[in-house]
Structures are given as structure tokens and as C-alpha cells.
Amino acid sequence: MLLSTTREDHLVAWLAALAIAIHVLESALPSPIPGVKPGLANVITVLALVMFGWRVAAWVSLLRVLAGSLLTGTFLSPTFLLSLSGAAASLAALLVAHALVGQRLSPLGLCVLAAMAHMLGQFAIAYALIIPHPALLNLLPVLLSAALLFGLVTGTMAARIYRQHPAVST
Q1: First-last CA distance in the chain
Q2: Which is nearest to 37 in space by CA: 156, 118, 126?
Q3: Does the keyword Transmembrane helix apply (predicted)?
Q4: Cα separation of 58 and 36, whole Å?
Q5: Does domain 7-164 have CATH number 1.10.1760.20?
Q6: Within 13 A of 93's CA, how many CA atoms are on the CB side?
């Protein structure tokens, strides 16, 4: 039996492969604070959202987390759980923002929102399941500051790419 694929399937596969490659390369970067990474693969997710819609962005994000964890050897580990919770929180925030304001929120704004939501999602799971200690709350301002900084960086990248390649129809 031959499975038929659509143009959207090919688009998701291509974008997910790009996001997975970035995710794997980024996992090799040293981090001064555990769990703090630039989130460069988020650029692909946000561009998928603004250029191709919510469904493509959700598939790209979820496939990145799943395949990225398989390739880095973290599948079903606490790292995977944190990555998945961050991606889910980020996708939820992007869905709400996109539904409420649509294209009026720029790729820069979406990346900042996604980075902050991602960090909050990871922090909530870390606090609830991994380190349920009140002292962990002292890290939250540092983590959210890092998320804001990296959200601005990835958002600037996404905005620049989007200006060069505006909306493309699927």
C-alpha cells in the first residue's frame, strides 16, 4: 500500500528536519545555567506559524522535540519532559496570541512570547516534579531574563528572515 503525501506533509517534514538539526546542534552548546539555551529552533516554529499556519507550526515543534530527544539520547528522560512541557506551553501561548491578534503580532513579539512561555512551562514542571523546593523560585527571575534576551535574539532573526521571505501559501 502506497501512502500519498501532500505538499503540506513535505513542508512539515522539511521544516521539522531543519528545526531538529538546529536543536541537535544547539544541544552541544555549553550552558552556564542548566536548561538555558538560545532556542534557535524556535525561529523555525514561529516562521512556520506566520507563514504556513498553526497546524504546520505545531507539527514542526512536536516533531522537533520527539526526534531531537531520540537523536540526543534524552527520550523519556527529565530533559525530554522539560523540553516537551516547554514546547507545549510555547505552542499554547502562540495559539492564544495568534487567535487573539493574528498577524498584528510580529515574529519578534511571537518569539519573545514563545521563549517566555517555554521557560515558564519548563519551570512549572521542574518545580512540580523534579525540584519541588521553594528556593528554586529564586532562579525564576534569572531564567525569565534569559528567556527574554534569547526571545529578542531569535525574534530578530525570525523577523529578518520573514522580511526576506514573506507569507508563502501552502
Answers
A1: 26
A2: 118
A3: yes
A4: 22
A5: yes
A6: 22
E strands, 13-152, are: none
In whole angstroms, what is the distance from residue 152 CA to residue 111 CA? 7
Give the cell for residue 159.
Answer: 523577523
Q: Which one-letter DSSP state was computed for residue 4?
A: P
Residue 93 CA, chain-centre distance (Å), reads: 11
The larger pLDDT score, comparing residue 3 to residue 168, is at 3
Compute CA distances 57 → 30, 68, 136, whole Å. Answer: 27, 16, 31
Cα separation of 61 and 66, whole Å?
Answer: 9
For residue 170, what pLDDT is reported?
Answer: 40
Residue type (1 letter), 30: P
Q: What is the pLDDT of residue 3?
A: 79
pLDDT band at 98 (very low <50, low <70, confident <90, very high): confident
DSSP state of 76: T
Count H helices and E strands in the chain, helices first. 6, 0
Express each pLDDT in 102-145 by its tens digit: 778 889 999 999 999 999 999 999 999 988 899 889 989 999 99
